[in-house]
Amino acid sequence: MIQDIAPHVYHNEYRPMPPSPDSYILCYHEKQILIKWVNKEITYPTFAELEKENEGIYENCQYLFSIDDERYYLMEHLVWPKGQNYTFENIEIFRTSQSGHLAFAGVTGSQLYRWYQDHLFCGHCQEPMVHSDKERMVYCPKCGRMEYPKLCPAVIVAVTHGDRLLLSKYAGRGHTNYALIAGFAEIGETIEETVKREVMEEVGLKVKNLRYYKSQPWSFTDTLLFGFYVDLDGEEDITLDREELALAQWFDRDKLPEPAANGSLTSEMITMFRNGER
What we know:
- The chain is 16% helix and 33% strand.
- By secondary structure, it is an alpha+beta fold.
């Protein structure tokens, strides 16, 4: 999955320090990220590469995280040398990128970028927010309001019925691959309750024997995913929520379509069932 970057190690501890010349810069604009192409491979500009074109580059940045000993910083409004292989690419490129830890850095940085952009001003008194130098937090110097990054918990549910697995396709979305039942947790419910509610809402089925598989940070949607395998409880006839899904159908284990190779929890769970490992 996209977060599986071993032997590289992701360090999420907030330890802000001045960047070094070889530190990486992550620069975003809406849903795009600045990429430097080297032999058709993804990488990112360093401070040394852009310091001539950008005055104050070492001061006007925000520490994000480290991978191994490489530090990543957030910056905006960059200028880069002409004739170099720099392009802005949609972050969706990381769904299929084979760049390992660099792809993970790019999509994880995008989640932090969106959070910072959404908290430029205090939601209570509209004062500009200030970055803490001790933790990943912004605060209001006027009313004292503090804001921390928030995650959206969601479930991925593999509904099984003997040697059959329920697959679906979303309605009205760009992604047309087969998927598992999925949905966000609501306030006041447990993750297990989310599993049962989402399956009932989307396909009208009851489930039992919930078995937790694993979790995945999915920064494309600011989500922390929890994967479950469950068994059908009762009738198998589907009642489709057509506002959410374009279709849903049962597939025999040996006739399951090949899942998309996009580093997702969904793809891994389908593959595990397809190979008889679940």
